[in-house]
Amino acid sequence: MDELDRNDLVLLGDKDLWLEGIMDQYGERLTKLAYNYVKDWGIAEDVVQDVFITCYKQFDEIDKVISFKAWIFRMTINKCKDVLKSSFIKKIVFNKGIFDRLSSSVLSPEGLTIKRNEEEVLSKCILSLPIKYREIIILYYYEDLSVLEISVMLKMNGNTIKTRLNRGRDRLKIKLERGRI
Amino acid sequence: MEDKLQNLRKAMDSTTHNGKHFTEVQKAKIKQKIRSVKTSESHEPKKHMVFGFTAAALSILVLLVSTEFMITPSIKEPNDGSTQALIDDWEIRNEYEENGEVLFSVYPDPGLSAEKPYGYLFNFTAPFDTFEGKELAIYAVHKETGERITVLAPNKVVNPPSGYSSLERFTTNFAVPAGGIWKYEVFVDDQLYGNVIVSVREKQYEEREEAPINKDWEITPTFTVKTENGERVFQGIEGEIAFMEMEFKVGQEGKTRWFIWGEDLQEVNRENLVVIATHKDSQEEKVVIDSNHWEVSNPEYEDESFKSILGAQASQHAVFSLPSSGLWRLDAYVGKKHYRSIIVEVEK
To answer: Which residues are CB-contacts of A106 (< 8 A; sequence separation ≥ 6)?
Structure first.
């Protein structure tokens, strides 16, 4: 469904049909996006469920949204961040020092042998990046968004995004190199 | 590495993200959840509907319904007796007549408004044996939404109130959930006895007059919250409404962030945050903020996520100024709801 269709449905006020459409269009994508943040399919599912329910409730306001895609992405991201912030996991596990140690033993790129699928190593390394770098790398490479689009979506300065993109790549490189040994 | 990253989607989708994760089951779950939210919002107490009414009884009643606006008796001539008359009869009247005789009238509290319980005095004219040993119930139907609620559960009438021979002075206390026109239906032993139509004002939000005009105009104190990056000072009432401390100088715009607590609030609210400033001496009023820029957890503030530190449900950044020096009262509203007043002093 393209933007025009959606707007037509919004104009027609057919809420249910519209919901069906956006679920088809964004459901899979947002679930994966959410997973990149929360790293748990169950939680990702909950987040996305929440997103669509919010969409449905805000149906009347939707026509005021300039870019629906940016809006729904942003909402998903924010909900993920809320989950990360609020969750017990964050307080214990995401505590910096511990997280680093954990990530090196659990996701241990070092432990992965050369035989392991390269793609899998890359994916896992990305998922083990700190959220602020992981987020940008995912949006840029996985979601294929431009720096400008990301900056609008995250309400973040373009230079900050570029910096994080660079640092993220550096960190990723180190992780990958360690993984290859 | 860049080339690998260029194919990141493929890499992830074939490994960590492999498979379909947004299934028809998930879709169905969402739809079901939406439906359940919808039905719980519009609770339909159909069980209170009385179906024991025969069409004949209905039509007789309909013929007899009148309103206080029916001054000329000629209007009361029997018409076709369709049920429509009963349903569409929404003209406000505090009396219920049958055969030209007032069966009862209601005297609601003059301040009657939504959501708060108010006292109602019903004056029934029939002798006590009409009610004795029977169950009296009152249901309310909202004109706008059709919502039907029980405001007085069926209750056996045993004795007349002391000092009265019948129910000339039957008092009850109840609240209706919304403003607008309400029909109160009185049932005696599950039979519709009559109805009255009452206008209920919208919920009365804390009137601005109730804000401390005659009080001390004491400057609202600040409170401090410790964050990872040091202490932050807020002015207002923690747990209700507060903003990040800012300097108030005449005409000088200041940037701050408002935090509002409330269970009915969401991160993004339909209604605007409106802040009305009132000057103590001149009583000058000024709308300083009227904005829907609800702050969604902003990654820029990830290091100092005040909202999570403070636990406020909603927040907004705002830039505003006050036009003259002295004490100002800031009354914050989200929609019509008032969220306390904050007194600030503006320097010259």
So the answer is: none
Determine the distance in angstroms separating the CA of A157 from the nearest CA of chain B, rounded to an integer: 9
Write out pLDDT tens, residues B192-203.
Answer: 899 999 988 876
State how far the Cα of B105 lies from the Cα of B96, in Å rounded to an integer.
6
* Residues written for chain A: 181
Cα gap A124→B221, rounded to integer Å:
50
- List all residues of chain A from 56 to 95 with a beta carbon under 8 Å from chain B: 56, 58, 61, 74-75, 77-78, 81-82, 85-86
Residue B99 resides in a domain:
yes
Closest-CA residue to B91 (of B199, B226, B185, B208)? B199
Task: Tell me which residue in B17, B26, B297 faces A32 most closely, judged by beta carbons.
Answer: B17
Angstrom CA distances, A134 to A139, A172, B138, stand at 8, 9, 61
**pLDDT single digits (tens) B133-161:** 899 999 999 888 888 888 888 888 888 87
Q: What percent of chain B shows pLDDT beyond 90?
A: 11
Indicate whether B93 pLDDT > 60. yes
Question: Where a domain ends, among B39, B74, B109?
Answer: B74
Q: How far apart are CA A169 and CA B219, in angstroms?
A: 52
Looking at the structure, do residues B165 and B270 belong to the same domain, yes or no?
A: no
Torsion-angle region of residue B299: left (phi > 0), alpha (psi -120 to 50) or beta? alpha
Tell whether B101 and B142 lie within a shared domain: yes
Bridge partners for B232 per DSSP: B225
Q: Which positions 273-332 of B are in contact with A (Cβ < 8 Å)?
A: 296-300, 302, 305, 308
The model's confidence at residue B39, banded by pLDDT at 50, 70 and 90, is: low
**What is the pLDDT, as a whole number, of residue A141?**
92
Q: Which residues of A touch B12 (CB under 8 A)?
A: 32, 119, 122-123, 126, 142
Whether the CB-CB separation of B2 and A132 falls below 8 Å is answered with no
Mutual angle of helices B24-41 and A15-38, in 10-degree steps:
120
Q: What's the structural domain count of chain B? A: 3
Does an H or E element contain B119, and which? strand B118-124
- Residue B23 within a domain: yes
Tens of pLDDT along chain A (181 residues) come to 444 455 555 555 577 888 888 898 899 999 999 999 988 888 899 999 999 998 888 887 777 777 888 889 999 999 998 888 775 444 444 433 333 333 333 444 444 444 347 788 888 889 888 888 999 999 999 998 999 889 888 888 889 999 999 999 998 988 887 765 4
- The residues in A 101-160 lying below 8 A from B, measured between CB atoms, are 117-120, 122-124, 126-127, 132, 135, 137-138, 141-142, 144, 154-156
What pLDDT sits at residue A93?
Answer: 42
Q: Which domain, by its residues, includes B275?
A: 222-346
CATH number of the domain residue B112 falls in: 2.60.40.730
